[in-house]
Amino acid sequence: MFVDHTNQRVLDVLEGRDKDLIVNYLRANKDGLLAQLEEVTTDMWDGYVNAVREVFGPSFRVTIDRFHVIKNFQEQLTQARREIQRGLSKEEAKELKGTRWLWQKNPENLTTEERQQLAQLQARFPRLQQLVEQREALRAIFEDRSIQDAASGASRLRGWMEQAKTTGLKALEGFCKMLSNWLELIANYFVSRSSNGRTEGFNHGLRGILWRAFGMLNFRHFRLRVLDRFGQSAKT
Question: What is d(CA 56, CA 68) in angstroms, rounded to the nearest whole number?
Answer without folding.
Answer: 23
